[in-house]
Design brief:
Number of strands: 12
Shape: flat
Helix content: 10-25%
Distance between the termini: 68 Å
Number of helices: 6
Radius of gyration: 25 Å
CATH architecture: Alpha-Beta Complex
Order of helices and strands: HHEEEEHHEEHEHEEEEE
Strand content: 25-35%
Strand order of the largest sheet: 1-10-11-4
Structural class: alpha+beta
Number of domains: 1
C-alpha cells in the first residue's frame, strides 16, 4: 500500500540526485580562483599577519632588534542564504499528470540556477572591484593601498592601465614587480603561471598576445618569438561579461596560491522536501548559505580595459 507521504519520499532522492548532477554539469571557474572553506559559524573572521621585515645590523654583545609581526586589515565574512523552490499538487500526483521523472527537469533547473548564482556572485565581485572597497578601505583594485595599518604613508598599486594588449601586458608586469610587496616591505614572489582572467569579448586579443608567435599576421614580415607564450594560464569566464553585470574590457592577473580570494560555505547546495497538508502540495526546496570576498588586495591585479 502506497501512502501519500511515501510518494514524497519517492520524489526526494530523484530530485536530490539530479539537482547535484546539474550543479556540476558545467565546469565552474570560481574554484580555480577562490579558496573554498567550510565553516559552520555565523561569521568567519580573518586578520592578515605579515612578517618581521628586513633583518638589521647588530654589534657584538648588543641587545635589541626585537620586532612584532606586521598586522594586516581584518575581514569578516557573513554568510547569506540563497534558495529556490517548486511545488507539486496532491491532485497532480493522484491523477498521474506528473509522473515521477517528469519533474527531473525542474530539479536540474534548480541545480543550474545554484551554480550560476555562485559563479555570477564571484565574477561580479572582481568586476565591481574598481568601485568596491576591500579590507583596507581602498577599492579592491586601486593605486594607493597602504603598506599596513601603521605605515599608511607608503602605498602600493594593483590597478593596471589600458586595454588588453601586448604592450599593456608588458607594462603590467613592470607594475607588478614594483608593487607586489608584502605588508612588511619584503617583495612577494608571484606565481610562475598566474591566471590571466578575461571575458569572452577579449578571447581573440588574449589568444593573439599569448600565442607562440604573437605578432605574426598573414601577409606581413612579423615573425617575432613571443616571450609571453606559456607564461600565463589564460581563463575565459563568461560571467565577467557585460551581459552578466560585468565588463567586456576588464582583465585581471590573479595569483590563486595566495589564497586571499575566499568563498566561505556554511551550507553547500542541498535539497529538502516536505508536505504542505494545508494547501495540499508536495514542496521541494534547494538552499545554500555562503559568503565570498577577498582578505587582501594582493590576490591579484586588474584593469578596467579603458
Amino acid at each position: 500500500m502506497t501512502l501519500r507521504d511515501q510518494v514524497l519520499q519517492l520524489y526526494t532522492p530523484i530530485y536530490d540526485e539530479f539537482t547535484l548532477e546539474s550543479f556540476a554539469e558545467e565546469k565552474q571557474i570560481n574554484p580555480l580562483i577562490y579558496q573554498s572553506i567550510d565553516d559552520k559559524t555565523m561569521e568567519y573572521k580573518v586578520d592578515g599577519l605579515g612578517g618581521l621585515g628586513l633583518w638589521e645590523s647588530a654589534e657584538e654583545g648588543e641587545g635589541g632588534n626585537y620586532d612584532d609581526p606586521t598586522l594586516g586589515y581584518p575581514k569578516t565574512f557573513t554568510q547569506s542564504k540563497k534558495r529556490k523552490r517548486f511545488r507539486v499538487s496532491f491532485e497532480a500526483v493522484d491523477q498521474d499528470e506528473y509522473a515521477l521523472l517528469s519533474k527531473v527537469g525542474l530539479a536540474k533547473e534548480m541545480g543550474r540556477g545554484a551554480r550560476a548564482k555562485v559563479e555570477k556572485d564571484c565574477a561580479n565581485y572582481l568586476s565591481n572591484g574598481f568601485s568596491t572597497t576591500g579590507p583596507d578601505g581602498q577599492y579592491i583594485f586601486d593605486s594607493d593601498h597602504p603598506k599596513n595599518p601603521e605605515e599608511t604613508g607608503i602605498t602600493y598599486d594593483n590597478l593596471l592601465s589600458g586595454a588588453f594588449s601586448h604592450d599593456n601586458l608588458e607594462a603590467a608586469e613592470t607594475e607588478i614587480t614594483n608593487n607586489y610587496i608584502g605588508p612588511d616591505g619584503i617583495p612577494i614572489m608571484p606565481d610562475e603561471d598566474p591566471i590571466l582572467l578575461y571575458p569572452p569579448a577579449l578571447r581573440g586579443a588574449v589568444e593573439r598576445v599569448l600565442a607562440d608567435r604573437a605578432k605574426e599576421r598573414p601577409g606581413t614580415a612579423n615573425r617575432d618569438i613571443n616571450r609571453f607564450s606559456g607564461r600565463y594560464n589564460p581563463i575565459e569566464w563568461r560571467w565577467l561579461a557585460a551581459a552578466f553585470g560585468g565588463s567586456n574590457t576588464a582583465w585581471f592577473i590573479i595569483y590563486p596560491s595566495m589564497e586571499m580570494l575566499k568563498i566561505i560555505w556554511n551550507a553547500k547546495p542541498h535539497y529538502n522536501s516536505w508536505l504542505d497538508n494545508e494547501d495540499e502540495f508536495y514542496v521541494f526546496s534547494g538552499r545554500m548559505l555562503y559568503a565570498f570576498g577577498c582578505t587582501n588586495w594582493r590576490f591579484g591585479f586588474g584593469s578596467t580595459g579603458l
